[in-house]
Task: structure prediction
Amino acid sequence: MNKKSIITILALFVVAIAAVAFLVIDGRSGKIVADKDSANPTAIGPIDISKITNEQIVSLLRTNPDSAGYINKYKDFKITSAVALTKDSIASGQAGQNFKEVYQDLELEDGRYMRVDLMNQEGNYGMITVLDLNTGSVLKAFAMLLMQAGVQTK
Amino acid sequence: MKKIIRTLALIGIVGILAIYPTARADATWTYVGIQVDSAKRVSTNTDFCLVASTTMDVMEGSTSLNAVTTVDPTCADGTGNTKLFPALPTGVSGKQIWSNLVNLTNGQQYTLKIIAPLCFGFWHKNTGINNPYYCWYRGYQNGGTGLGESCNQICQDNGTTALNDGLYCNSQYDQGCAAASALFGTCGACWDGQNLNGRRYDTMCGNNSSGYAGQLCSSGDGSWSYVCPCNVSTGTYNFPFTFTTP
Result:
């Protein structure tokens, strides 16, 4: 085997290793929120919205890499709000001033979706998620960064 | 030779593995919010409101990230026109204001900026006379009662000018009672009957010491403390808040 062949093989080897490293690192990233309106690759099936428990909500959130990443990082998080969405609340949210993206692209259906808000113990970093209970999946996960301050002028 | 190639290859692999994770900056779709606990005017030790047309944006350095949201009139009690940020019940904080959704790089510094025209008195969104927005003030600067102060003086004390429609100074009648109640307190009925001196809103707080009257911006009545509509300052105040994403 001449030197040229060895270098070619080594170059291919390096590229292969780099590709494997890319996939491994990307797959385990568990970042808090990575993609806008990211679809959840995992679903756990239909859940009765009237009977859902906090434990089921957390289990569901663990199926999404974004919300799972948040839960793993902020183990002291609390569910600050879990609200079943209605046709009216979805329409109102889509036309509202804040958090429009949370409601965008949702079907106008009663009792299918649930908005779940999470917040860490310090109250400065949280997440807004939308669960689709028909499919048992996490549709959306956005971060919330909250400051607390006063303002003053002369 | 083989040894050199092997060493180079190893260095390359290690380099790629070491550099890749740090070179790839993750971004997070985020709503940035601020809970305004107080809004204070230091010179008079009074509270004020973030009034309608206040906006908020997220900045990366001096560049806007187009996260602008228009802030509803914001007072601690959730209203737009009462006195701002009064003492709150235990456990109740100021109102939260949220930006639009913005994609932020993790671990990077940004600034949340509130851009506010200020009204330290009673905010009035006009339905269309002369001025789209104006602000009512009462004469009580320097700890006095404001008796006899003209609208010119009252507005000047608050860093602005009286709203003069050319005929009367304070002819914005539609919210006079609401302004008088907000600025003097709701201590009685508000009479908005018109007399020879223009409209007079007597809030019956005693000895005519609180109420509204007036005709000319320069006129003052020693028996009355006026409430006057003033132009909102043309300038805006910027309140920047720096933060770093997790």
